[in-house]
């Protein structure tokens, strides 16, 4: 027996132990991936197999976020400020290495044409230009960052104003607070936080109230700040989402959001990719706050920006007790995501559409934005976007693709209508 | 499919290994399983070009049998030895057949790899011919240079006396074996002939293969990719400063070494896992004292291929000086051309032709070996030439290379923020890469058990970090992927 043990021990060379560990880890991952592959129903032919396997490897890779976090930690351990095409900026935020916006005149022309299309139908149009935190204060940006998004957005806004479009430009307002970027922007994400979105919604609500002549008392702001409770979750752990850099590279975010202190009953209708309608109704928190996400607070959760629900296609929010029995249609990117939550106090119906993706929903395949306007019959249309939706060439291949951002300005107008 | 994609180490490799070790060696089942896996491996990324490869295999199989018959070689039992004379005199029909086979194989590369370059060059040099010469746009089948050269070496070896492989599937396995299919090393048939039909994998061999694979994986994912971050930025336009230009070329020098040697390590490691012993392809080339020595340490399988199949048949060094220079010019022109269809590669090859010819004519190699003083001067000069060669290799055009070289030697400000930022950013990876590119860790002191055990532990940890980088990164090709 002793001889056998010694014989086995002699064979346990470092190489042998290494091989066993390697094979064990590979076999474990292989089992997970094969299971994911076999339960996938999208493989219809052999030609589909490579694409599907690649997709599963990317999305269902077991412990994906653990690996992302490890990668971020390894980068910091060797003193790097760059990881996964993201750079740790001087202000402690992470930004894209490249966030370069090209020519904006063509897109401005299309939006001007759309505003005139709406004007002919008696529908007011408003463009709200949100800032991105990436290059808000150029002195704070790392020298390696090639980002001109806010600068190009100002140029875009100037073109819109020349074309007679009503614009709210939020960039100067938030640029004034650039010394304390954390106050309004997430550290591990290019989005603004909900404090910024709330203030932007206040400005928007005031402007719309004036534009639509809504019944608001002179001594009260439209959203009535006193009626909102501000919640905060400190050190909300995030960073593993979407192959970012993990919580160990640039730290984690605090998140804050607002809940309306009201007994009103809200409702929402959302569509999934297959066109299936999902309805929900209840108090403000039931409809607008993603409680599960807030409570989970684990190291590998989603981005800190998903307290309010993600609107990939189209959503309709209703509040029968709203200030005004009016409908606002928002054409927005992810920066517009929190806005319906705040505007629902004012407007009985808030419809929000993401022009980049709504046609991917089966229920809206082939539809145009101009057709949606006709169906929705809004009292006002608001285009709400951040500068990167102008078509930024961003460091991450998954974002800012030209054809996606171009859809922000694809209104489906015929040549005759666009004149 | 790449070795450094998630699906290779975590789906493809485990399945192939499992099937390989479950199947018996009897009836060549293991070999057929490997062949099927290799064809799937190639077809995964090139579903149409896999037929080009199979056609090449079939053509060379028939050609080798025909040439053997013409040479009237008879087997002695199961083996024949290579004749004593390296250049036996086969009959004239065999020579003609060989010429046709060589032409056929070169035509395959010529069409897929060089046709676009030739038509573009002719249209540029002779604008009046543009109407007569259409611009072609052939796509390059991955690994065509490697598997074509392997097939060529097989046919020439048969012509020289090697026994042709009777089983077409075994020949297909030799040419298409996935570890070395798309980026080498170029494996000679004689080195694996016996292993193809009779091999046993010991646990030590398998473990060694696993370790070698992981080392190569880490080299590629960590060192090569990090060096690429700087090199890609430096070579994307004209560098803003001389310091950044030099940093860029140093990083590219290290990138290409770790990328290619890492891939070779993975190929050799994978071969060992299946019982094959491939020859080494790199031997710390950046410690070379002369350009001649550099090419005895860099991509050794390619260098020996050109030596045995081009240089020696032309007469080698046993000729007059004029003929020697001619032989070297041909070899290095072809070496440059093999690397790519661009004047930069040809110029890069010719640079080495000039250096090596100069060393041979002056007897520099022996002098440097004998004299430490000369070594102190010549070794840095060799490294400088290697790095300048990489500028040519990496640049998109001769003009771009010229601009880059100008920036290196005074055509740009001395230093800029990019040089400062990236020097700081790459400090640790650069030190690790420089240490890894020299045989420092081969010193006897590191042979102690605890150093060895620590080495394994560190490599396993680094493998975890490499997979982390893989999960983060979307696309991760090898530099030599397109050869």
What would the keywords be for this entry?
heterodimer, A: 419 residues, alpha/beta, eight-stranded mixed sheet, three-stranded antiparallel sheet, 14 helices, 16 strands, elongated, B: 483 residues, mainly alpha, 70% helix
How would you concisely characterize the structure shown here?
Chain A is an alpha/beta fold and 419 residues long.
> How is the main sheet of chain B built?
none
Strand content of chain A: 15-25%
Q: Mind telling me the C-alpha Rg of chain A?
A: 24 Å
Cα distance, first to last residue of chain B?
15 Å
The percent range for helix content of chain B is 55-70%
The poorly predicted ranges of chain B are 74-87
What is the mean predicted local confidence, pLDDT of chain A? 84
How would you characterize the largest beta sheet of chain A? 8 strands, mixed
Question: Shape of chain A from CA axes?
Answer: elongated
User: What is the count of helical runs of chain A?
Assistant: 14
- Which oligomeric form is depicted? heterodimer
Q: How are the strands ordered across the major sheet of chain A?
A: 7-5-15-13-14-12-10-11
How would you describe this structure to a colleague?
The complex is a heterodimer of chains A (419) and B (483). With 419 residues, chain A is α/β, with parallel strands linked by helices. Chain A is built from 14 helices and 16 strands. In chain A, strands 7-5-15-13-14-12-10-11 form an eight-stranded mixed beta sheet, with helices on both faces. Chain A has a three-stranded antiparallel beta sheet with strand order 1-2-3. In chain A, strands 6-4-16 form a three-stranded mixed beta sheet. In chain A, a hairpin with a 2-residue loop joins strand 1 (82-83) and strand 2. Chain A is elongated, with a radius of gyration of 24 Å. The mean pLDDT of chain A is 84. Chain B is built from 20 helices and no strands. Chains A and B meet through helix 2, helix 3, helix 4 and strand 1 of A and helix 1, helix 9, helix 18, helix 19 and helix 20 of B.
């Amino acid at each position: 027996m002793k001889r056998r043990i010694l014989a086995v021990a002699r064979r346990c060379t470092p190489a042998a132990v290494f091989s066993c560990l390697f094979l064990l880890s590979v076999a474990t991952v292989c089992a997970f991936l094969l299971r994911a592959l076999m339960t996938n129903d999208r493989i219809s032919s052999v030609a589909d197999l490579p694409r599907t396997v690649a997709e599963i490897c990317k999305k269902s890779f077991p412990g994906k976020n653990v690996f992302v976090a490890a990668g971020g930690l390894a980068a910091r351990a060797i003193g790097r400020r760059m990881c996964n095409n993201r750079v740790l900026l001087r202000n402690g935020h992470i930004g894209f290495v490249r966030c370069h916006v090209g020519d904006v005149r063509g897109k401005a022309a299309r939006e001007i044409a759309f505003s005139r299309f709406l004007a002919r139908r008696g529908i007011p149009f408003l463009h709200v230009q949100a800032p991105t935190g990436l290059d808000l204060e150029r002195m704070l940006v790392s020298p390696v960052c090639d980002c001109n998004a806010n600068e190009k957005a100002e140029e875009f806004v100037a073109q819109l104003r020349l074309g007679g479009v009503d614009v709210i430009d939020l960039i100067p307002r938030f640029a004034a607070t650039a010394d304390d970027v954390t106050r309004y922007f997430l550290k591990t994400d290019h989005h603004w936080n909900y404090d910024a979105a709330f203030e932007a919604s206040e400005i928007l609500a005031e402007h719309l109230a004036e534009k639509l002549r809504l019944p608001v008392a002179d001594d009260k702001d439209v959203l009535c700040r006193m009626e909102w409770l501000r919640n905060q979750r400190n050190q909300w752990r995030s960073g593993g989402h979407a192959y970012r850099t993990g919580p160990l590279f640039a730290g984690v975010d605090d998140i804050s959001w607002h809940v309306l202190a009201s007994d009103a009953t809200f409702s929402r209708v959302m569509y999934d990719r297959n066109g299936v309608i999902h309805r929900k109704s209840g108090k403000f928190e039931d409809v607008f706050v993603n409680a599960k996400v807030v409570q989970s607070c684990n190291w590998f959760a989603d981005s800190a920006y998903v307290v309010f629900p993600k609107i990939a296609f189209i959503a309709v929010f209703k509040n029968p007790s709203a200030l005004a029995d009016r409908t606002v249609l928002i054409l927005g990117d992810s920066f517009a995501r929190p806005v319906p939550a705040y505007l629902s106090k004012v407007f009985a119906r808030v419809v929000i559409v993401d022009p980049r993706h709504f046609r991917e929903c089966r229920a809206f395949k082939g539809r145009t934005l101009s057709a949606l306007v006709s169906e929705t019959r809004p009292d006002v249309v608001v285009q709400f976007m951040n500068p990167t939706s102008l078509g930024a060439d961003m460091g991450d291949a998954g974002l800012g693709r030209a054809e996606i951002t171009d859809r922000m300005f694809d209104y489906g107008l015929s040549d005759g209508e666009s004149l | 499919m790449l070795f450094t994609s998630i699906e290779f180490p975590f789906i493809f490799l485990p399945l192939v290994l499992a099937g390989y070790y479950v199947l018996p060696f009897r009836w060549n089942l293991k070999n057929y399983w490997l062949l099927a896996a290799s064809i799937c491996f190639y077809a995964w990324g090139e579903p149409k070009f896999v037929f080009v490869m199979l056609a090449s295999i079939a053509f060379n199989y028939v050609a080798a049998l025909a040439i053997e018959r013409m040479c009237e070689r008879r087997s002695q039992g199961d083996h024949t030895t290579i004749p004593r004379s390296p250049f036996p005199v086969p009959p004239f029909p065999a020579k003609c057949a060989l010429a046709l086979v060589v032409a056929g194989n070169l035509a395959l590369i010529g069409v897929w790899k060089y046709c676009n370059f030739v038509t573009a060059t002719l249209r540029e040099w002779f604008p009046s011919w543009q109407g007569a010469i259409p611009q072609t746009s052939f796509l390059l089948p991955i690994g065509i240079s490697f598997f074509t050269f392997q097939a060529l070496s097989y046919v020439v070896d048969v012509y020289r006396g090697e026994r042709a492989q009777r089983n077409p599937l075994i020949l297909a396995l030799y040419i298409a074996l996935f570890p070395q299919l798309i980026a080498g090393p170029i494996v000679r048939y004689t080195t694996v002939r016996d292993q193809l039909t009779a091999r046993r994998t010991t646990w030590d061999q398998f473990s060694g293969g696993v370790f070698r694979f992981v080392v190569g994986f880490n080299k590629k994912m960590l060192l090569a990719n990090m060096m690429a971050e700087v090199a890609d930025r430096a070579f994307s336009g004209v560098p803003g400063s001389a310091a950044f230009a030099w940093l860029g070329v140093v990083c590219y020098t290290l990138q290409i070494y770790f990328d290619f040697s890492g891939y070779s390590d993975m190929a050799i490691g994978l071969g060992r896992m299946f019982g094959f012993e491939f020859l080494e392809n790199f031997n710390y080339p950046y410690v070379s004292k002369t350009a001649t020595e550099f090419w005895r340490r860099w991509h050794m399988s390619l260098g020996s291929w050109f030596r045995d199949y081009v240089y020696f048949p032309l007469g080698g060094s046993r000729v007059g000086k004029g003929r020697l220079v001619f032989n070297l010019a041909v070899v290095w022109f072809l070496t440059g051309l093999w690397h790519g269809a661009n004047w930069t590669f040809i110029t890069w090859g010719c640079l080495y032709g000039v250096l090596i010819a100069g060393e041979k004519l002056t007897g520099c190699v022996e002098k440097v070996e004998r004299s430490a003083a000369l070594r102190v001067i010549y070794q840095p000069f060799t490294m400088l030439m290697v790095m300048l060669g990489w500028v040519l290799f990496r640049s998109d055009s001769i003009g771009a290379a010229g601009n880059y070289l100008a920036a290196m030697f005074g055509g740009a400000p001395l230093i800029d923020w990019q040089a400062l930022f990236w020097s700081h950013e790459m400090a640790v990876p650069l030190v690790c890469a420089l240490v890894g590119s020299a045989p420092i860790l081969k010193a006897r002191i590191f042979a102690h058990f605890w150093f060895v055990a620590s080495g394994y532990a560190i490599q396993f940890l680094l493998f975890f970090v490499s997979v982390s980088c893989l999960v983060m990164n979307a696309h991760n090709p090898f530099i030599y992927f397109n050869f």
